Amino acid sequence: MDAPMKVIPEIDRKAGKLNLSPEELAQMIDHTQLSPYKQQRSLEKLCNEAKAYNFGFVCVHPYWTRFCVEQLKGTDIQVATVVGFPMGQNTPDAKAMETKKAIEDGATEIDMVMNVSAFKDKRYDFVKEDIQAVVEAAQGNVVKVILETGYLTYEEIVTACKLVKEAGAHFVKTSTGYGPMGATIPHVYLMRQTVGSDYGVKAAGGIYNFRDALRMIAAGANRIGTSAGVKIMDSYAWARHTDWHIEEIPCRLCPSRKANFDKMPKAVFAYYKSKCVDCPYREFNRFYE
Amino acid sequence: MEGKLLRINLTTNKISEEEIKPEILEMFVGGRGLGVKILSDEVDPTIDPLSEKNKLIFAVGPLTGTAAPTSGRYEVIFKSPLTGTICNSNSGGYFAPMIRKLGYLAIVIEGKSKDPVYVWASENGVEIRDASKLWGKDTEETTKALLKETDERARVACIGPAGERLVRMAAIINDEHRAAGRGGGGAVMGSKRLKALVLYGKQKPKVADNQRFMKIVKGCLMTLDKNPVTKDSLRIFGTNVLVDIINEIGAFPTRNFQEGYFEEADGISGPKYLERIFVKAYNCAGCPIGCGRLTKANGEEGGGPEYETVWAFGAACGNSNIEDIAKANYMANRLGLDTISTGVTIACAMEMSERGILKESVRFGDSEQIIELVRKIGYREGIGDDLAEGSKRFAEKHGCPELAMQIKGLEIPAYDPRGVQGHALGYATSNRGGCHLRAYMIAPEVLGIPVMVDRFKPEGKASIVKLLQDVSAAVDTLVLCRFTQFALRIDQYAGLLSAAVGRTYTEDDFKRVGERVWNLERLFNVKAGFSRKDDTLPPRFLQEPLKEGNSRGRVVELDKMLPEYYKIRGWDEEGRPTAEKLKELGLC
User: Fold this and answer.
1) Is residue A271 part of a domain?
2) Total Cβ atoms within 10 A of residue A168
């Protein structure tokens, strides 16, 4: 496979030229609260922010689905929830049951986590069945499948994207936010290249400001999952006042730099680090860059 | 828009009120803008700053004392005795709302009294009172005595022994430990023999469209409460949260900027501050953030130290004793000294001593000696008399001007410019000299606010510096705390202003206010003799790469940024605003 990190500078430049209105950007954002300890007032705040900034969706734990649906009644803002979250190791039955309950509670989108263990064991039929169970239970509502790209090689990401599409889901999504790595340009780019232009790609994890968001969109994402929606929109308000696009050193945007020995399979860590050796941008890969 | 100013002439003892022309308020709003306009109109830029011809303008803005978050600040504007430039200095606490509650947007102090005096202003009128008994007292004693003499509910801004002795880095201290520190406003006050302003007002500041105003205020509060810097970092750690961050990037100036990494930073870090000296946090008037700190060290209690002070008496002087840093800070507050300039001047002396240029032994890391030098500077005792002139004059006197870490005479604060190129440009072009707050490029270059930009690249920085300089100047016309800029958007500032004054300011209008103020300041400086040659940094930053830390190997690439900056500003090659630019801004 041609190394996807080669596209980083080109996509970074493209992101600097994207002409997206604040309204368009807000509609692409899943305003997310998936912390394990937040209380009702935080979820109330999340919904109020979604109204104030006119985000397309909020994304919350199943426990909060009904509450948020109530809070957002009378608006166009939809509620997405998560299934098999964040590890994806639940059985297909359990995922289907979670999905059914979520739809009953008013969720219109389901972000499920792929079973990475089964995928790594190459039990592709099981992985597909796992996804299909959720798609079926979702009764025509949108299903996004979180690949947790930080556990996968580039080649595995391509395979996973094909499986998701074959299983009838509607989106591939990069990360839970609890995995070893958030969304990166090469991963999102690769996902878009694999699923084609008429499919959903959601970038999530580590998207903190408008430049991060625009980079993901330039790489091919049509949905952004982030708990920093307000910060992104507030920072985007500064975008029109001057040119903030100072070209970034490719390494800072590369999964090989973000690979974490403690958090990911050692073989995957080694895989990403090995990509640096022949990388065309290796001159930038210095200790203080 | 309407507003009054109070004019007090200390030569003639004449006290008068004036309506400020609506067109001036429309163009310059208040605070820094209003003060700069008055000073530019009324003071010859070539005067001696310590002569009676200088003026001292305390100014607030249309949001002061309202529900707008952080609106409890004032600006004081003067020609600086430390730099010779126009200067504005800003302070929080609870003094500012009193100016507004008396019905004023500005108090202009002019002339010079023969004897020490203070001004007492209340609903019953304005008086110039004898301050002979207070002359010589420190700021704490002065504040307590004046509150007893006037009204316990009043607020005091005063000078200490440093201001009385015309120490060029003397601060004006309000509410005992809040300082309008930079540039030597305390010395200007001392030169006028004015010990203090004591204010007590009761009028409730009004806004034009209260319903709209409160809606925008609510939005601003929500934004501040969502931002991790204003919501958590500043609230929990205070400004000292920056020690670890700036040291980690290798831009924490150490031992008079000889290095950018302080190996003992752990001793003065945010967590260590909490463990060793922190007593409680407090908020300035109208502030939801609450970065203020009350502390206790070796039996003494007081306000601060802030990050800049922890650094100035800490890493800059090679000192990691947080208790003694706090004590030096208490001493500086009582004497009425700017802690940044004081610490950096001491650091300069330390390097000169280390190099054998100074015959006195002044050693890096000697925390007791730092406290003693602060005292000597405040009282102009011994070597303190020379140090009281600031690092530039001190180093020049000893034949080593290159060892003074200053720009246009103002000591550089706690960020080594070699590790942050845009910030370096902000320093070099600052209208009041070495200042981090004119364009706080640390926000985008280090903290990623509003977005992270590569801190080592000079390309593209000029336009960002200009934007932040203009917006910061505009925010200073309101007058709101610089920390709100971590979170609030330009449309929120413009909205607050519009609703407060009943005239619509678009985002571009608001930026234009800032640009106007910036250019008027620049014009003042040009007339005072400043030019491109002064828009520079000490040679250390341009020629000596940092040796340690995560900015090692770097120098400032000023030549790549400055011409682009002038061009974007609409200035000529010498850094003078062009006639077209002045016309565009309504300045000629």
Assistant:
1) no
2) 14
SS3 A218: helix
Number of domains in chain A: 1
Do B54 and B177 belong to one domain?
yes
Interface test with B, best of A210, A236, A246, A249 (most B CBs within 10 A): A246
The per-residue pLDDT for A170 is 98
CATH number for the domain harbouring residue A109? 3.20.20.70
Question: What is the per-residue pLDDT for B279?
Answer: 96
Cβ–Cβ gap A238/B450 under 8 Å: yes
Pick from A234, A242, A247: CB nearest B464? A242
Q: Write the DSSP string, B49-67.
A: TTSTT--EEEE--TTTTSS
For residues B295 and B359, state if they share a domain. Answer: yes
Report CA Rg, chain A: 18
Instruction: Give the pLDDT score at A57.
Output: 97
Do residues B581 and B510 lie in contact, with contact meaning Cβ atoms separated by under 8 Å? no
Stretches in chain B below the pLDDT threshold 70: 1
A residues 269-288 lying closer than 8 A (beta carbon) to B: 288
Judgement on whether residues B105 and B128 belong to the same structural domain of the protein:
yes
Q: What tokens were used for B505?
A: 């300011």
Neighbours of A109 (CB within 10 A): 25
What pLDDT was estimated at residue A284?
A: 83
A209 touching B (Cβ < 8 Å) = yes
Per the structure, the complete domain to which residue B267 belongs is given by 251-404
**Structural domain range at position A168:** 4-249
**Complex ipTM more than 0.85, yes or no:** no
Residue B453 with chain A: CB contacts under 8 Å: 244, 246
What pLDDT was estimated at residue B27? 98
Chain A within 8 Å of B525 (Cβ-Cβ)?
no
pLDDT tens-place string over residues B239-275: 999 999 999 999 999 999 999 999 999 999 999 999 9
* A–B CB contacts, 8 A cutoff, strictly below: 71
Q: Which residues of chain A have pLDDT under 70?
A: 1, 287-289
User: Which residues have CB under 8 Å from B144's CB, separation 6+?
Assistant: none
Whether residues B465 and B517 share a domain: the answer is yes
Decide if A234 and B223 are in contact by the 8 Å CB cutoff. Answer: yes
User: Does A287 reside within a domain?
Assistant: no
